[in-house]
Write a structure and sequence with these properties.
697 residues, alpha/beta, five-stranded parallel sheet, flat
């Protein structure tokens, strides 16, 4: 279901099952909040022990109501909660928010009760929120079906921000932090156990509120990735940024010890790739969400990330330059005309290059900010502006500084942020709507995030054509042997090393002569689906220098396979192909996101180094190159110390082919390990020398 959930977010009538006269109790707060914050619909308290609750007529039961309400809050606990949900479904209630806990979070028995309750609700056409939730709150219309104390501690104000969270505590925290920064918040929704409605479902609905300009999510899992992807696509269409916190960064239960790819494309890396692919920016916590919110709400969408630093302190200019490098915000190279214009407006001892040091002359001439900013504003090299005021006080006309900055921002529409740790200095800037922070790390971090997220939202992704499913070899074993794996890749146009599968020593002898490259040595390795990782059993021999040696190794490995009780499917004799660098490419079928592709530093230490990037299909070679640029080994790609640049294009084409292979398999391939891929210099190509394909169970 993908409706806009109007019955919960904009109900015309609300029943509160377990209503209380005491506004400090869970059953009392929703009624209090709705009456206080202007809910115009009908409120039906249900409490058989009272005739009136908070000035409203109370009813003995749901059946006694004059109508089936759009929304019901279930605040009673235990078996009564389950019975109340069933009553709601039978009465024709459209949505029910189950505040009660003790369900899925309490163990297997609770999960079964929760599942059955949700199934009955769904069968009746009723949407279920929770259980174990703090509820929903829409301050745009006063429909507050929740009990958070934060709405008492920090008075609500309607605004352009939506918060959707699995955790009630995190939704309240985000709300409190945003309100603490003077920002209005319209939606504050918590999904709890997500027996039915998920964060993705609510995000879809909130994204369709035309007054929402920023959407913040807190996720503990991604239960409905298709809906979240659809929401993100719609949000990009209407230029609605989404910032997400995804808790649980450590790898959890999705381990595949038999597969390099399984350990490298762990759950958190896959989450990162999913969010990035769909233009959702990930931050560590609600503090980071609130910190950046005001900059997003300004509507700034910078074209680039070149930074101009302006300060009244030379030391702050130096520190700003250092921080700009840390955040990958290159200092803008101002044009000669701009530098001359700036220099003409500053005293002779000031610095007109970027960073611009206005110096203490600001004390005697409060108009310097107003002089310098317009001079720099039109320089095409300037994308972002950072004003750092480490000290100001008596004698400084801070109001004038703030006025000039606000005029500059209004006239240019370019992002400008301020760092001012003194409250008296920060206040005038904040009063004029200029994002102001206590230090340069926060200020430049927000600018960097804004620039990066804007670029991410503008990215487009390749489309892959539909392809015929690959023909997997007969058999039911978990793994294909290496020869079968290489053949599967070769059929998709992936360059694989020259090799022969041998079943006798004589064949191995002949194969050595056929595959050894210009007298170079060969590789001899056992081929058995029962032994996916051959080197661990001494079944790989490198630098085999003669046909006789190849024949002898065949005999030894053939015997070793028998000793291990493994199927003796052959012995591979392959060319010992050299490259400039070894990479790994992998793909796996993630249980949440589907096909996930990995590329990174390869070789025998791949799992120890873990220098990899993860991509979600579809993607093209350009996206692979961008992912490669994020690796620790990225400097090697362009060549160092006289070494030529690597053939990144050829490697990228291998990555795309592997991704298309697992996608075309339609769930029949669980994982693909390609390690190493030997990559040569530009023009020398890439060559797969080892591969392992795992069938899906």
């Amino acid at each position: 279901m993908s409706d806009l959930l109007e019955s919960a977010l904009d109900p015309q009538s609300v029943a509160v099952i377990g209503a209380s006269e005491n506004i400090h109790k869970i059953g009392g707060r929703p009624i209090y909040y709705m009456q206080k914050h202007g809910f115009a619909g009908r409120i039906y308290p249900i409490n058989p022990a009272r005739e009136e609750v908070q000035g409203l007529k109370s009813y003995a039961s749901l059946a006694a109501l004059p109508e089936a309400p759009d929304l019901a809050l279930v605040i009673v606990g235990g078996e009564k909660a389950v019975a109340a949900v069933d009553d709601c479904a039978a009465r024709g209630v459209k949505s029910a928010v189950v505040i009660a806990s003790g369900f899925g979070e309490a163990g297997e028995e609770g999960r079964e009760v929760q599942k059955a309750m949700a199934e009955r609700a769904r069968a009746a056409g009723m949407r279920l929120y929770g259980p174990n939730t703090q509820g929903l709150a829409n301050f745009g219309n006063g429909a507050i079906a929740g009990f958070s104390t934060m709405f008492v501690e920090v008075p609500p104000a309607d605004g352009p921000i939506g918060v959707v969270s699995q955790s009630g505590g995190m939704s309240a925290m985000a709300y409190g932090l945003l309100r603490g920064r003077g920002l209005g918040v319209r939606h504050v929704h918590a999904t709890g156990n997500e027996a039915d409605v998920t964060v993705s479902d609510l995000a879809w609905a909130v994204a369709h509120d035309p007054d929402v300009k920023l959407l913040l999510l807190y996720l503990e899992n991604i239960a409905n990735p298709e809906m979240l992807a659809r929401t993100a696509a719609y949000a990009r269409e209407r230029d609605l940024p989404i910032i997400a916190v995804k808790a649980g960064r450590c790898a959890s239960g999705q381990k595949a010890a038999s597969s390099h790819t399984g350990s490298l494309a762990n759950e958190d890396r896959a989450v990162d790739a999913f969010l990035r692919h769909h233009g959702i920016w990930r931050v560590r916590d609600p503090h980071a969400q609130a910190l950046a919110a005001e900059a997003y709400l300004k509507g700034w969408r910078p074209e680039g990330r070149r930074l101009v630093v302006i300060s009244n302190s030379g030391a702050s200019c130096v520190m700003g330059a250092d921080a700009s490098e840390e955040f990958k915000l290159p200092l803008a190279e101002l044009s000669p005309a701009t530098r001359r214009d700036v220099a003409a407006r500053l005293p002779g001892f000031a610095t007109a290059t970027n960073p611009i040091d206005i110096t203490a002359a600001l004390l005697s001439n409060s108009g310097l900010f107003g002089d310098v900013l317009p001079a720099v504003a039109q320089d095409p090299a300037a994308d972002l502006f950072f004003i750092n005021i480490p000290v100001a006080g008596a004698g400084y006309d801070v109001e004038a500084f703030a006025n000039d900055t606000a005029k500059f921002e209004a006239a240019t529409g370019k992002p400008v942020v301020v760092a001012a740790w003194q409250a008296s200095v920060a206040a005038p800037f904040k009063a004029r709507g200029i994002p102001t922070f206590g230090n340069e790390t926060e200020a430049l971090g927000v600018l960097a995030q804004l620039a990066s997220h804007t670029a991410l939202m503008r990215e487009s992704h390749a489309a892959w054509p539909e392809e015929a499913a690959p023909a997997l070899p007969r058999g039911s074993g978990r793994f294909l042997n290496e020869a079968e794996s290489l053949a599967l890749l070769a059929a998709r146009g992936v360059p694989v090393v020259a090799h022969r599968l041998c079943r006798t020593a004589a064949q191995a002898r002949d194969a050595w002569g056929a595959v050894a490259e210009a007298g170079a040595p060969a590789v001899v390795k056992a081929c058995s689906a029962d032994v996916p990782h051959k080197s661990e059993h001494g079944l790989v021999a490198l630098r085999v220098g003669s046909a006789d040696e190849a024949a002898a190794l065949f005999d030894a490995q053939w015997a070793k396979l028998a000793e291990l009780g493994a199927a003796r499917e052959g012995v591979l004799v392959a060319a010992m192909h050299k490259g400039r660098h070894e990479f790994m490419v992998g793909a796996r079928l993630d249980p949440v996101f589907g096909p996930v592709v990995v590329v990174g530093d390869g070789g025998t230490n791949v799992e120890a180094m873990q220098d990899v990037a993860v991509l979600l299909p579809p993607f093209d070679a350009a996206e692979v190159k961008a992912a490669l640029s994020t690796l620790r080994i990225a400097p090697l790609l362009g060549g160092v110390r006289g070494e030529p640049p690597l053939d990144v294009q050829a490697l990228s084409e291998v990555v795309v082919a592997v991704g298309r292979l697992i996608a075309a398999a339609g769930g029949r391939i669980a994982s693909i390990d390609v390690n190493p891929v030997m990559v040569g210099a530009v023009g020398e190509g890439a060559m797969v020398v080892d591969a392992l394909v795992e069938r899906a169970g």
